[in-house]
Amino acid sequence: MTDWTTADIPDQTGRTAVITGANTGLGFETAKALAAGGARVVLAVRDTEKGAQAAAKMAGDVDVQQLDLTSLASIRSAADALKSRFDHIDLLINNAGVMTTPKGTTADGFELQFGTNHLGHFAFTGLLLDKLLDVDGARIVTVSSNGHKMGGAIHWDDLQWERSYSRMGAYSQSKLANLLFTYELQRRLAPRGKTIAVAAHPGTSSTELGRNLPAALQPALNRLAPLLAQSPAAGALPTLRAATDPSVLGGQYYGPDGIGQQRGNPVVVASSNQSYDMALQRRLWTVSEELTGVTFPVPVLS
Hints:
Number of strands: 8
Radius of gyration: 18 Å
Number of domains: 1
């Protein structure tokens, strides 16, 4: 099926979905569609007031959980709160992200984009995983980006970009890390046979994510956006399909089917060759555990 839309989302009644960064843009559209489909949806957001405003615009069972992905303390607190509220979680959608920010660090000293987009979600997933394990049909969907192909590499010699800094380079690294994480997580989940890990990307979508792009690029982007970008609702479709389509397999990557995967219908797409490198996946996993102090209840396979 190539013309997949929200009308194809199966009944989500009885399912609980936790979505990071769900008060605006892609996350908002993802949450709204799942709630409309009957899911109980938790908006895991940094600003709970904005989260409440977003929840008020959605029909269905929607509430808010405070989560700041730039702080391991906040991540642990949010995970503890969710585990105390729910006996299981059916969907975890790692959607929140920052892009091409000025050089900065998280509360724990990680480069801001790597720390938020990858390490924050790595820790959050690991802390919640026991609520997703052995749950029929449970899925962990992590949102990456076409940006992972734009010179994306894991800079092992300067992982936190302390010696030099490239806004796009750091963003590309974080989005490549999302994919390396997803593929390694799926390999660890596979023997258990119930929970799967999937990735998605929105193509080019008109959201607030690009607010940190250099000012010199904005005029050109404003001219090109109507030609290249799709709406946040369309950009959310790959994530929604990855989260709900019964035909989805663990380790797949969903994105638009148009030219350059910039817009179009959500289908299975390929990520960069580098993202499938098992040695890189395992090395990043080990480093991520060391940096965050979070270990997963799924062992590495020999």
